[in-house]
Amino acid sequence: MNFDKSRAARIALGADSEGKPILLWAEGAAKSGYIPGQGSCGASLSEMAEICADVGMVNAVNLDGGGSAQILLGNRRSLMISDRNKQDFSEAERPVPLGLMLE
To answer: Do 57 and 24 meet the contact criterion of CB atoms below 8 Å apart?
Structure first.
C-alpha cells in the first residue's frame, strides 16, 4: 500500500494535549464512482496523519477506511459511504462486522 497516494474514506480517533477526545473523518467516494468536483476523494494515510496533527491531535489511531467507514449520529448516517452500485453509482451499504459506539 502506498501511504502517500492510496486514497479512501478515513476515520481517526485521538486526543489533544489536554486529553480531549477528537473524532475526525474524511469522506471518500469509490474509485469507480468519484466525479471530480462533485464528491470527496478521501485522503491518503499520510494526509490523514497531517490533518490529525493540524487539528491538534497529539495521538490518534486510524480506525478504518473505504466502505466500512461509516458514522451514525442520532441513528442517521452522517458520512457518505464509498461503496457504490455499478449501475448508477448510488451508495451501496454492506455488512460491517464490528463497530465502535461513543456516547
So the answer is: yes
Q: Cell 480531549 appears where?
A: 20
What are the backbone angles phi and psi of residue 66, rounded to the nearest 5°? 75, -150
Angle, CA 64 vertex, CA 88 and CA 95 arms, to 5°: 55
75-86 tens-digit pLDDT: 787 766 666 777
pLDDT in tens, 20-72: 999 998 877 655 556 666 667 788 899 999 999 999 999 999 987 766 667 77
Which strand (E) or helix (H) includes residue 76?
A: strand 76-77
Q: Give helix then strand counts, H and E, for the chain.
A: 1, 5
pTM: 0.70
Q: 70-78 — which CB contacts under 8 Å span 24+ positions?
A: 70/96, 71/11, 71/25
